Amino acid sequence: MKVSVIGLGLMGGSFALALKQNDSVKMIYGVDKNKDHEAAAIKNKIVHTCVPLEEGILKSDVIIIATPVDAISYLLPQVLDLMSPEQLIVDLGSTKSYLCESVKNHALRGRYVAAHPMAGTENTGPLAAFSSLYEGAINVVCDQSYSDDSALKLALKLFNDVGMKTVFMDSGDHDKHVAYISHLSHISSFMLGLTVLNIERDEKNIANLAGSGFESTVRLAKSSPEMWAPIFAQNKKFVSKALAEYIDQLSAFKQMIDVEDSPGMSEAMEKANDIRRILLIH
Amino acid sequence: MKVSVIGLGLMGGSFALALKQNDSVKMIYGVDKNKDHEAAAIKNKIVHTCVPLEEGILKSDVIIIATPVDAISYLLPQVLDLMSPEQLIVDLGSTKSYLCESVKNHALRGRYVAAHPMAGTENTGPLAAFSSLYEGAINVVCDQSYSDDSALKLALKLFNDVGMKTVFMDSGDHDKHVAYISHLSHISSFMLGLTVLNIERDEKNIANLAGSGFESTVRLAKSSPEMWAPIFAQNKKFVSKALAEYIDQLSAFKQMIDVEDSPGMSEAMEKANDIRRILLIH
User: Fold this and answer.
1) H/E element, A31
2) Which of B171, B179, B219, B273 is deepest in the core (most CB within 10 A)?
3) Reported pTM
4) Model ipTM?
């Protein structure tokens, strides 16, 4: 099997590295508009070689798109136009409704499998890629009834080969849920970083105090703006709603601090402690 | 040397375990109002034995208070009343101004060293304690000029023995800085947990989607309300201000999402990326 990976960053690079361990994958073509990323992906043996987009599509059985979601929405219809009905295309983007809607009426819609692996780190680019990124991760496949059986079967085999467990979800449900679980976490962390950096401008030595708790909470503030701005734009409705609810909770807690309502604070924190239950599911 | 540790949770228990590796410490007495914690501390060899508060003070060269900060503010003047001018008392609380102010005029103020180790985990109780918690951590000592030279020297030796590097700070500066770096992180995480738990009540399977990013950001939401409510109350002024600034940043970002200002979002996230610099200091 020959595979093209479009977008050689953390997600695409790691997928390529994981597929290389698969005996049935004989050739992996890389495609990236950033020529430094292509050179790094070849040098680090992430892909066998790099080719122009059209050549990759022509030569591959499977095409993986792992670019930021604005580029996916731009590339997906173009790639489908160039594909034949034997080929498979999979995207790994963090939003799904907009993408599924944009190709709903395409003649080759059945060859597309809309996926979102719940895996990642705060690092970006081909040098951030590693072969075990997807091992043990949950993968969400959306609107699977629109994919042909043969396309879905092959995609599920590849997801399984790289170590993921796939669950199925309506693309609207997916976008709502990830707005709370993933997208809101990133905004929470980005803005915590900004707030601390603002005070740090005026106060010396504040960085000295950063302990492991702060480091954990602010980790996602290192994430790529190029990747995240399009996600927030495409999932605007649900992200804005989740963020409004978060701001309401923070404002209510601030009010409790201001009026010294310690029992109220304790009650809110005790409720929040139940998050252990969700994290233990994994 | 004989040491009493008052409060046998994560902080006190870990301090006791670290001191036990010190040849000059011959006896560690534990004191906790929770008798189950005393039993667990003895059973797990965290302390040599447990004694009533007065007995611990009478028999010890050094007294460590590692209770929640409301109990510290209650116990600290009482313990100083019972101490002799040869003894040393250290607290490990997360707030410092209120505690320093409360004993400012005590005859034995010089025997008190106000400390805040920047170490911890989201777990609580004696079973969460481990001997390496303090290794490599920054320790903040506040208002050190109010401590006797001999008291300060012995305290610094103990902090060094358990693996910490001590920095000195005015207690007001300390409270302001930790409001941003530590206390705000905890509120951010507690309220993220609450927001996600609220939506999870209505939406099935949302927990399935929790990846490592969410787990990292929400980790501190597991923390102890008993420990944190008194911290927010004692550091009300600075915590409320930090929280107001955080809410302002989140509201501005929400506004950018709502009007689809992608360049504005990218600019804010690029600024936040500079948090790498602060985290690299460690």
Assistant:
1) strand A27-31
2) B179
3) 0.92
4) 0.92
